From TrEMBL:
PANTHER family: GLUTATHIONE S-TRANSFERASE GSTA (PTHR44051:SF8), GLUTATHIONE S-TRANSFERASE-RELATED (PTHR44051). It comes from the Bacteria. This is GST-like protein. Coiled coil: none annotated. The lineage of its organism: Bacteria, Pseudomonadati, Pseudomonadota, Alphaproteobacteria, Hyphomicrobiales. Residues 2-83 form the GST N-terminal domain. It holds the Pfam family GST_N_2. InterPro entries: Glutathione-S-Trfase_C_sf, Glutathione_S-Trfase, Glutathione_S-Trfase_N, Thioredoxin-like_sf. Signal peptide: none annotated.
Length: 209
Protein backbone atom coordinates (compact mmCIF):
# COMPACT_ATOMS: atom_id res chain seq x y z
CA UNK A 1 0.00 0.00 0.00
CA UNK A 2 1.46 3.36 -0.98
CA UNK A 3 -1.30 5.71 0.16
CA UNK A 4 -3.60 6.35 3.09
CA UNK A 5 -7.10 4.90 3.20
CA UNK A 6 -9.58 7.04 5.12
CA UNK A 7 -12.74 5.30 6.27
CA UNK A 8 -15.39 7.92 6.87
CA UNK A 9 -19.08 8.75 6.75
CA UNK A 10 -20.97 11.69 5.34
CA UNK A 11 -21.20 14.63 7.72
CA UNK A 12 -19.10 12.99 10.45
CA UNK A 13 -15.79 13.84 12.07
CA UNK A 14 -13.99 12.07 9.27
CA UNK A 15 -14.68 15.16 7.16
CA UNK A 16 -12.09 17.02 9.28
CA UNK A 17 -9.47 14.45 8.32
CA UNK A 18 -10.47 14.54 4.65
CA UNK A 19 -9.95 18.30 4.66
CA UNK A 20 -6.62 17.91 6.46
CA UNK A 21 -5.50 15.35 3.88
CA UNK A 22 -6.28 17.81 1.10
CA UNK A 23 -4.36 20.56 2.87
CA UNK A 24 -1.40 18.23 3.37
CA UNK A 25 -1.40 17.08 -0.24
CA UNK A 26 -1.42 13.50 1.04
CA UNK A 27 -2.24 10.69 -1.36
CA UNK A 28 -5.35 8.98 0.00
CA UNK A 29 -8.43 7.03 -0.89
CA UNK A 30 -11.75 7.75 0.82
CA UNK A 31 -13.98 4.81 1.68
CA UNK A 32 -17.29 6.39 2.63
CA UNK A 33 -19.56 4.00 4.50
CA UNK A 34 -22.72 4.23 6.64
CA UNK A 35 -20.71 3.35 9.71
CA UNK A 36 -23.68 2.65 12.02
CA UNK A 37 -25.51 0.32 9.64
CA UNK A 38 -24.99 -3.42 10.21
CA UNK A 39 -23.36 -5.19 7.30
CA UNK A 40 -19.99 -6.03 5.78
CA UNK A 41 -18.74 -2.42 5.86
CA UNK A 42 -19.36 -2.13 9.60
CA UNK A 43 -17.91 -5.59 10.21
CA UNK A 44 -14.69 -4.52 8.48
CA UNK A 45 -14.64 -1.26 10.41
CA UNK A 46 -15.00 -3.11 13.71
CA UNK A 47 -12.04 -5.30 12.81
CA UNK A 48 -9.94 -2.18 12.34
CA UNK A 49 -11.42 -0.10 15.17
CA UNK A 50 -13.20 -1.87 18.05
CA UNK A 51 -15.31 1.23 18.71
CA UNK A 52 -16.66 1.12 15.15
CA UNK A 53 -16.11 4.85 14.75
CA UNK A 54 -14.92 7.15 11.99
CA UNK A 55 -12.44 8.46 11.13
CA UNK A 56 -10.40 5.31 10.94
CA UNK A 57 -7.21 5.69 8.96
CA UNK A 58 -5.21 2.89 7.38
CA UNK A 59 -1.62 4.05 7.03
CA UNK A 60 0.51 3.42 3.94
CA UNK A 61 2.34 0.66 5.86
CA UNK A 62 -0.96 -1.00 6.83
CA UNK A 63 -1.04 0.18 10.45
CA UNK A 64 -4.28 1.70 11.71
CA UNK A 65 -4.83 5.05 13.39
CA UNK A 66 -8.00 6.21 15.12
CA UNK A 67 -8.94 9.36 17.06
CA UNK A 68 -9.05 12.48 14.92
CA UNK A 69 -6.71 14.58 17.07
CA UNK A 70 -4.06 11.85 16.93
CA UNK A 71 -4.44 11.68 13.15
CA UNK A 72 -4.14 15.46 12.87
CA UNK A 73 -0.94 15.48 14.91
CA UNK A 74 0.46 12.66 12.78
CA UNK A 75 -0.33 14.55 9.57
CA UNK A 76 1.16 17.72 11.01
CA UNK A 77 4.42 15.84 11.61
CA UNK A 78 4.36 14.00 8.29
CA UNK A 79 3.47 17.08 6.20
CA UNK A 80 4.92 20.09 8.05
CA UNK A 81 4.50 22.43 5.08
CA UNK A 82 0.71 22.12 5.44
CA UNK A 83 0.84 24.04 8.75
CA UNK A 84 -1.88 21.91 10.32
CA UNK A 85 -0.28 22.65 13.68
CA UNK A 86 2.15 25.34 14.84
CA UNK A 87 5.75 24.21 15.10
CA UNK A 88 6.90 23.01 18.51
CA UNK A 89 8.90 26.24 18.91
CA UNK A 90 5.94 28.47 17.99
CA UNK A 91 4.40 30.44 20.86
CA UNK A 92 0.95 29.41 19.54
CA UNK A 93 1.70 25.72 20.00
CA UNK A 94 0.36 25.42 23.60
CA UNK A 95 -2.89 27.20 22.68
CA UNK A 96 -3.29 24.98 19.63
CA UNK A 97 -2.86 21.82 21.69
CA UNK A 98 -5.16 23.05 24.41
CA UNK A 99 -8.06 23.89 22.12
CA UNK A 100 -7.57 20.92 19.80
CA UNK A 101 -7.98 18.58 22.76
CA UNK A 102 -10.83 20.69 24.14
CA UNK A 103 -12.77 20.30 20.89
CA UNK A 104 -12.36 16.54 20.75
CA UNK A 105 -12.68 15.78 24.47
CA UNK A 106 -15.35 18.26 25.56
CA UNK A 107 -17.52 19.32 22.60
CA UNK A 108 -17.30 16.33 20.27
CA UNK A 109 -18.60 13.81 22.88
CA UNK A 110 -21.79 15.80 23.39
CA UNK A 111 -22.81 14.55 19.95
CA UNK A 112 -21.70 11.00 20.64
CA UNK A 113 -23.77 10.82 23.80
CA UNK A 114 -26.87 12.71 22.72
CA UNK A 115 -27.51 11.97 19.05
CA UNK A 116 -29.32 8.75 19.98
CA UNK A 117 -30.62 8.96 23.58
CA UNK A 118 -32.42 5.63 23.20
CA UNK A 119 -28.99 4.01 23.06
CA UNK A 120 -28.61 4.77 26.77
CA UNK A 121 -32.00 3.24 27.60
CA UNK A 122 -33.49 6.56 28.62
CA UNK A 123 -37.29 6.50 28.90
CA UNK A 124 -38.95 7.82 25.78
CA UNK A 125 -40.54 10.75 27.58
CA UNK A 126 -37.11 11.86 28.87
CA UNK A 127 -35.19 11.74 25.60
CA UNK A 128 -36.21 15.13 24.16
CA UNK A 129 -35.41 16.90 27.42
CA UNK A 130 -32.06 15.16 27.60
CA UNK A 131 -31.14 16.30 24.08
CA UNK A 132 -32.17 19.88 24.85
CA UNK A 133 -30.07 19.89 28.01
CA UNK A 134 -27.03 18.55 26.18
CA UNK A 135 -27.53 21.04 23.34
CA UNK A 136 -27.54 23.90 25.82
CA UNK A 137 -24.42 22.56 27.47
CA UNK A 138 -22.76 22.29 24.06
CA UNK A 139 -23.53 25.96 23.41
CA UNK A 140 -21.86 26.83 26.71
CA UNK A 141 -18.79 24.86 25.66
CA UNK A 142 -18.67 26.59 22.28
CA UNK A 143 -19.00 29.90 24.06
CA UNK A 144 -15.61 29.37 25.70
CA UNK A 145 -14.08 28.81 22.26
CA UNK A 146 -15.74 31.95 20.91
CA UNK A 147 -14.34 33.95 23.82
CA UNK A 148 -10.73 33.13 22.95
CA UNK A 149 -11.04 32.89 19.15
CA UNK A 150 -9.20 35.29 16.92
CA UNK A 151 -9.90 35.93 13.24
CA UNK A 152 -9.55 35.34 10.32
CA UNK A 153 -8.24 32.05 11.78
CA UNK A 154 -8.67 30.72 15.29
CA UNK A 155 -5.02 31.51 15.97
CA UNK A 156 -5.21 34.90 14.27
CA UNK A 157 -3.51 35.08 10.90
CA UNK A 158 -2.17 31.53 11.15
CA UNK A 159 -4.22 28.65 9.75
CA UNK A 160 -4.38 25.46 11.81
CA UNK A 161 -6.44 22.28 11.90
CA UNK A 162 -8.65 23.88 14.55
CA UNK A 163 -10.18 25.95 11.74
CA UNK A 164 -11.15 22.71 9.99
CA UNK A 165 -12.85 21.37 13.10
CA UNK A 166 -14.87 24.56 13.47
CA UNK A 167 -15.92 24.47 9.80
CA UNK A 168 -17.20 20.90 10.18
CA UNK A 169 -18.64 20.91 13.71
CA UNK A 170 -20.72 24.06 13.23
CA UNK A 171 -23.00 21.94 11.02
CA UNK A 172 -23.96 19.69 13.92
CA UNK A 173 -26.65 20.44 16.50
CA UNK A 174 -27.91 22.98 17.31
CA UNK A 175 -27.38 23.76 13.61
CA UNK A 176 -25.83 26.38 11.37
CA UNK A 177 -28.43 29.12 12.00
CA UNK A 178 -28.19 29.07 15.77
CA UNK A 179 -24.41 28.68 15.62
CA UNK A 180 -24.03 31.77 13.45
CA UNK A 181 -26.29 33.82 15.72
CA UNK A 182 -24.39 32.83 18.86
CA UNK A 183 -20.77 32.65 17.68
CA UNK A 184 -19.88 35.33 15.12
CA UNK A 185 -16.10 34.89 15.31
CA UNK A 186 -16.31 31.13 14.92
CA UNK A 187 -18.75 31.59 12.04
CA UNK A 188 -16.28 33.89 10.29
CA UNK A 189 -13.55 31.26 10.69
CA UNK A 190 -15.84 28.52 9.36
CA UNK A 191 -16.96 30.67 6.42
CA UNK A 192 -13.34 31.35 5.47
CA UNK A 193 -12.71 27.61 5.28
CA UNK A 194 -15.98 26.94 3.44
CA UNK A 195 -15.14 29.59 0.83
CA UNK A 196 -11.67 28.19 0.17
CA UNK A 197 -11.74 26.29 -3.17
CA UNK A 198 -9.52 23.61 -1.62
CA UNK A 199 -12.23 22.73 0.91
CA UNK A 200 -15.55 23.97 -0.48
CA UNK A 201 -16.40 20.90 -2.55
CA UNK A 202 -15.93 18.50 0.37
CA UNK A 203 -18.04 20.64 2.69
CA UNK A 204 -20.80 21.00 0.11
CA UNK A 205 -20.84 17.26 -0.51
CA UNK A 206 -21.14 16.50 3.19
CA UNK A 207 -23.41 19.27 4.40
CA UNK A 208 -25.29 20.41 1.26
CA UNK A 209 -24.14 24.00 1.85
Amino acid sequence: MSKYVLIGSKGCGSVVIELAMLKAGAEFELEEIPYLEPGPDRDRLLELNPLGQVPTLIMPDGDVMTESAAIILHLADAFPDAKLAPATSDRQRPAFLRWLIYLVSEIYPTSTFSDDPARWQLPKDAQDGYKRTVDQYRKTLWGHVEDVADTPCFLGNDFSAIDLYIAVMRNWRPGRKEFSQSFPKLTEIADNIANDPMFSGVLKRNFDT
